[in-house]
Amino acid sequence: MRKAAKLVKTQARKMLKGGQSHSATPIGSRSLTPAPEPGNAQLQVSSTDQSLTFTSKTVVDTLETTLTVLKEVSAAFPPLQAAVGGVIQCIHIYKNVSGNTEALQVLAEDLITKTKFLQMQLERDNMDPSGMQSIKDLARELNRIYKEIKKQSNIGKGKKVLHQTEIGDKIQLFKEKIQQAYEECKEKILFTISQNIGELLKEQMLGKLGYSAKAFYDTDKGSQYTCHRHCLEGTRAKILENIQHWAENASESTGYWIWGMAGTGKSTIAMSACNLFKKSEECALVASFFCSRQIEECRDYRTIIPTLAYQLARGFRRFAVVLRDIYNADPEIASKQPEEQVLKLLIEPWKAVLAFQNQRRVPVIVLDALDECTEVQRALKPLIAAIEEGKLAQIKFLFTSRPEQPIQLLLHSNQLNMVIPSKVKVFELHGVEKDEVQKDINAYVTAELKSIATEQHLQELTALAGNLFIFAATVVKYVMGMKDPSSQLRRLEKALKDNKHQELDQLYAGVLQDVIGEDFEKDELDTRWSILHTMVALLQPMTCKGIAVMASSGEDTVRVLIEQLQAFCFISAKDQCVHTFHLSFPEYITRQSDEMNIAKYHEKLSINCFKQMEQLRFNMCDLPSSFVPDAEVEGLQERIKERIGETLEYSCHFWGNHVLATGPLVRNVTDEMESFLKSRGVYWIEAMSLMNALLKCGEVLEALLKKRMVIKEITMAETSLKLLKNLRNLLGHFAGSKVKDMTPHLYLSVVPFWKKMNGDGFNQEWKQFPEVPQIHQNVTHLAAALAVEVGSRICSTVFSPDGTRIVTGSWDNTVRIWDATTGIQVGESLQGHDDGVTSVVFSPDATRIVSGSSDHTVRIWDATTGIQVGEALQGHDGAVVSVAFSPDGTRILSGSWDNTLRIWDATTGMHVGEPLQGHDYGLKSVAFSPDGARIVSGSVDSTVRIWNATTGIQVGESLQGHDRPVLSVVFPLDGTRIVSGSEDHTVRIWDGRTGIQVGESLQGHDYAVNSVAFSPDGTRIVSGSDDNTVRIWDATNSIQVGETLQGHDRWASLVAFSPDGTRIVSGSDDNTVRIWDARTGIQVGDSLQGNDQGMTSAAFSRDGTRIVSGSWDNTLRIWDATTGIQVGESLQGHHMPVSSVAFSPDGTTIVSGSHDNTVRIWDATTGIQVGESLQGHDEEVTSVAFSPDGTRIVSGSYDNTVRIWDATTGFQVGESLQGHGSSVSSVAFSPDGSGIVSGSHDNTVRIWDARTGTQVGEFLQGHDQGVTSVAFSPDGTRIVSGSGDSTVRIWDATTGIQVEESLQGHDRPVSSVAFSPDGTKILSSSYDRTVRIWDVPTSSFTSPITRCHWVLGTDGWIRFPKTASPLLWIPPSFRQLLWTPQTTCIISKYGYTQLSFDDYVFGPNWADSFSV
Predict the structure, then answer these.
(1) At 1154, which CATH number?
(2) How many domains does the chain have?
(3) Do 700 and 736 fall into the same domain?
(4) Whole domain around residue 166: which residue ranges?
(5) Cβ–Cβ < 8 Å for 1023, 1055
(6) Which spans does this entry mark as compositional bias, Polar residues (predicted)?
(7) Residue 1063 and residue 785: Cα distance in Å, rounded?
(8) In whole angstroms, what is the distance from residue 56 CA to residue 113 CA?
(9) Among 1082, 1091, 1125, 1093, which residue's Cα sits nearest to residue 780?
(10) Whether 263 and 404 share a structural domain
(11) Is the pLDDT of residue 379 over 90?
């Protein structure tokens, strides 16, 4: 018995082993169709077939062996195995009662076959059977059948033996039930697989890979442009035979590169090879990519790998499954560097395919015309590396291209310098025997021209063609361009007569001589040559009509000429534009002129562009409303097409390119350009905005300014340069704004402000626009030339080396790249850091960006694609706060809070040498010297240190002089000096060799200097400070140059000069980047100067003639309320900032509270302190006030209490007033002295009984942030409060209810509020460095301001109460000093901006104001 059992198991193992040979499905034919199920699906009881069909030579000797196999194959399906055990028991039951093993064995064999089929199908498609509902359903059905048979067998034991026929019927019914259960399971599984791959391809591959369908070898769209053809049957036979032999034999090389010069038929061969591979039984075409210069996505190397991956996913589901998982792990994988694309999109998914089966048909990928793809080597290099290293086993690659050097270096085995032979075979089309090529060309021309040509004609044409198929093809197109046979024959004979050489130039010359030969007059010849030169000089294809306009010719003339030249070019049926068949034709036309003539054609195109742009006008596309974004304007694209049209669109995009191509400009070009800039410049911006081309605007203007163009040898007129600069700056304000997608607001929200700021410098023709809205300005500070709202705190910002881009690092963990002219973000944010980005810098060649972060890492990014290069550079133990490239771009320097500097290899990312140690505290700034030999560092330890960049050893002693942390250090371009900025408010210059300070420190900033930079010529220094300002200094005499650059609402954290020294970029904690004109600015006016560090508190004297203010500089100042001039000296005595001030009722004394925890009383006439300071508070005193009779003083403090003091003795009166849940920020007596009001950082206002110290009523709520200041009105009926939410609110002192809307206008926290003595006005001061005066609303108040009440939102939009949409957007530079409706006066050192909406027209009528 043991031997029998052992024999059964042995036979079962043999059967299983034989069944594990998987049959591969032919590639390219199985996308959604399962492999055919082996075996006979329909079982017959009478069947005597004893074979197991999953292996052709397996024989089952006994039923027991078969059942053992059935049990073992079912083990692959855990839910099924137990149920199969029940089926086996049923078979045993029927065997025992019937003795008929034959029929039962057939059933068991069939179940084995079905089980193996399901297993193979699920394994191939990488699906887990254990969790599939269909398997669970099958197991449940088998269990039900088993229980039913078991029940019947138990009943049968107590009855007579059944008749044999009845037993046979039950066995047949049993088999049918089992068969039906398996069939239903199979259908469910196949449906699931089909549905799953469909969803996978639709949702993941199609939508996310970014592939190019136009690059497929057989796509209709691609053929329309590239006109790919197959080899004529019978031609190129030997070449195609060799290619097929290579593809079908595994022993041949993995790669095959066919190269040849233009016109040798590479793409035609590639097309025919694709067809061969698809028809072959030994190999299969699995992917293709046909590059094309004419199709943007087909000339972009970044689409090659995703396109191949997409096609492989369609043919191999396992590939698609792995690809999906890779995408889920990294959704941006398709935009990564080619090296990572090859690894993630090809190598790793292909491993999954190979793990399951070897391919019966060899998979082949075809990549054609590599030379027509820009920077193709970037994708080709990692792909070739994968081929050479065997990481794409079993796939073969066919490449074709011209022998351009970057491609040749990668594909030519002689160039690879490899120890082992290259896996890429090289085939040179020029090396083919001439007789063989001639034979193929003869076959081609015979097939095409046999109806008109004699044998002699065909032989002559074949001989002329030489080795160039394109020569023969061009002649054929030329000849067959005529309709009638006689004309065709005439053309053929002319071509044979005139073309004695094979060079294409001869062919082109001959055809052109025929088309524009001696039959034309000179002016007609000139016209046709002008058309040809215009056509090839155009920067994008145009229609015949467009070419005619740009060539100053007739459309019919152009169309006829193109039809006559159909051998070289064609009119696309898709866009009606003219395209050339081959790049060699425009190259030939260009070679027919010298540089001077080429420049003249561009000059002519420039003039025609300017003439076309004379069509530009205000509101060219009749935008319906200033409320509607451009994207939501119904039918806008149709209007653009109709109103702007092809030639005007082309002119708007490319006029600058043609101007630049003219070389030294002639007078008529500059005259036309100046006229255009004066009269149509703003309309040009409007049109480009509608076409979403503002970036192109910036490129044109920046290129023109950078070129420093000359007229002959005379420098361009100042007028033209000024106009270009004005237009560039206007563009920057609009393109970088929140209204760039709402074109009406170019005129409503941007032009009016820019006109005001430019004054006489504004383009004269633009002054005709009315003031909409009317703007009254008294602004004494420079406005930034460009302000970009980033949306997160800016930690670092710098220009690219060419000045065209700006890179910023932010607290939101991202790096962003911006166009420096328009302020538009370029590409997506660069993401990867896990914490704030503290420092960014461009590489010297502008190809890379390096960033340092608080996540302790340094990262390198591709500046073009935005993709991270390599892994993060790790090693620092603290935040990386500063990074720099060496001048040659080979090294990266980083400074960190871990007190060290590190140098990294910029290519490998490896650490170079040991960390540079010496600083006692964290680093703040690092920089290389211009020659790369030295490194300078600034630290929190207040020192500057110089290091040898090679050895890492400190050079000399530390540079000492700053007494606070050094925040920024930099070398000038000559490397002779070092400039440093510090928290001690100073900028210092040091000798770069000796380390000795040069001259005095540069003083003027009121707070820490965060960033410093030298101008490129080393003559100026720019500094940015916590005082929110940017200052320019003379680097020789250390004197400030011009006025301070104002505009940032918070500290200026980063500054830098543009490479040409004409602009300054600054980044700020106010989330903006601003670009400034680096010219000197002169300060205008003397308004209220003195409090250079921001006022904290202000109050009127009782008679209204004087104002007292407290400041962050620890002093009090008294001002004449009429003239704004300071009275006497500052009141000094507090050791810390003064937080609150107040006059006594009789005006003779002043009380002040300070962060030094004290209250002080001063003589208002002499400014001398009266008595000792009042002490008792445990923390800063935030607010003080006199009682109406002057006998008491009330104070509030950070200790959450309110205290009352005797004004004569200085003693505290009674207990502290307690109740606030946070610090008390402000206190005041009621006019009758019976009550006290207090405001707190708990956002509430409270009223107290001044005699008992108890709270009166509920607290007053409404502010969104802490209350900073409170005051009673003179009659005691109102209370005013100011808050950190930047608003002022008025309350009814009896009911505690807010009166009217909050007063809005300040854009920083309100620091102090007060009523005027007559109670009609409110005075408020703010951390925005302004004082505002407001009218107090009354029941009879009917000021026009109330009727025109508007609010400025944090997004910069002005909104009116009864208008749903915002009306006007205020540029960031003008918000801080904007006069709001409730404001009656703004007192500011820097002026104000006031608007009038009296004649303002908006919404659907917005354009009515511009009837010019």
Answers:
(1) 2.130.10.10
(2) 6
(3) yes
(4) 2-201
(5) yes
(6) 20-32
(7) 9
(8) 12
(9) 1082
(10) yes
(11) yes
Q: Report residue 1013: phi and psi, to 5°.
A: -155, 145
Do 569 and 644 reside in the same domain of the chain?
A: no
pLDDT reported for residue 1082: 27
Task: Output the six-digit token pair for 1234.
Answer: 């019976």
3-state SS, residue 1131 = strand
Instruction: Assess if residue 1188 is contained within a domain.
Output: yes
Higher-pLDDT residue of 1169 and 1392 is: 1169
- Nearest of 1387, 1334, 1336 to residue 1095 by alpha carbon: 1387
Q: Provide mean pLDDT across the span 1266-1283.
A: 89
Asked if 43 and 83 sit in the same domain, the reply is: yes
pLDDT score for 1089: 33
Q: What percentage of residues in the chain have a pLDDT greater than 70?
A: 79
244/238 Cα distance (integer angstroms): 10
Kindly state whether residue 1337 falls inside one of the protein's structural domains: no
* Dihedral sign, Cα of residue 1050, residue 1052, residue 1054, residue 1060: positive
Nearest CA to 1390 out of 1401, 1382, 1399, 1378 is that of 1378
Give dist(CA 1005, CA 1024) in Å, integer.
Answer: 9
Looking at the structure, tell me whether residues 142 and 286 fall in a common domain.
no
Q: Based on the domain organization, do 227 and 347 belong to the same domain?
A: yes
The domain spanning residue 578 has which CATH number?
1.10.10
User: What radius of gyration, in Å, describes the C-alpha atoms of the chain?
Assistant: 42
- Residues 315 and 331: their CA atoms lie apart, in Å, by 22
Strand (E) positions, 793-890? 794-799, 805-810, 814-819, 830-831, 837-842, 848-853, 858-862, 880-885
Q: How far is CA 3 from the centre of its chain?
A: 74
Kindly tell me the sign of the dihedral angle through the C-alpha atoms of 541, 546, 550, 552. Answer: positive
3-state secondary structure 501-514: CCCHHHHHHHHHHH
Kindly tell me if the per-residue pLDDT of 1245 is higher than 90.
yes
> Would you state the structure tokens that stand for residue 1008, as one six-digit string?
């820490």
Examine the pLDDT at 561 and tell me if it is beyond 80.
yes
Mean pLDDT across the chain, nearest whole number? 78
Contact (CB, 8 A) for 992 and 976: yes
Residue 216 lies in a domain: yes
Q: CA nearest 1142: which of 1229, 1065, 1264? A: 1229
At residue 374, the pLDDT reads 86
- Together in a domain, 180 and 230: no
What gap in Å lies between CA 135 and CA 677, rounded to an integer? 75
pLDDT number for residue 330: 83
413 and 481 fall within a common domain: no
Residue 136 corresponds to which tokens in the numbers above?
């669970």
Q: What is the pLDDT of residues 1116-1125, one digit of tens each?
A: 888 776 666 7
Pairing of strands 1149-1154, 1159-1163: antiparallel
Phi then psi for residue 1235, to 5 deg, are -130, 160
**Which residues on neighbouring strands pair with residue 895, listed in sequence order?**
882, 901
Under 8 Å between Cβ of 1193 and 1204: yes
Which residue among 573, 595, 617 closes a domain? Answer: 595
Q: Residue 827's pLDDT band (boundaries 50, 70, 90)?
A: confident
Among 595, 694, 714, residue whose Cα is nearest residue 652? 694
> Rounded to two decimals, what is the model's pTM?
0.54
Q: CA 1262, 1263, 1266, 1268: dihedral to nearest 10 degrees? A: -100
791 domain-assigned: no
Torsions phi, psi of 511, nearest 5? -65, -45
3-class DSSP state of 1187: coil
CATH number of residue 247's parent domain: 3.40.50.300
Euclidean distance between CA atoms 371 and 804, whole angstroms: 29
Query: Which range in 430-444, 743-757, 1076-1090 is most confidently predicted, on average pLDDT?
Result: 743-757
- Could you say which of 548, 565, 595 is where a domain stops? 595
Contacts of 755 (CB under 8 A, 6+ apart): 762, 766, 767, 769
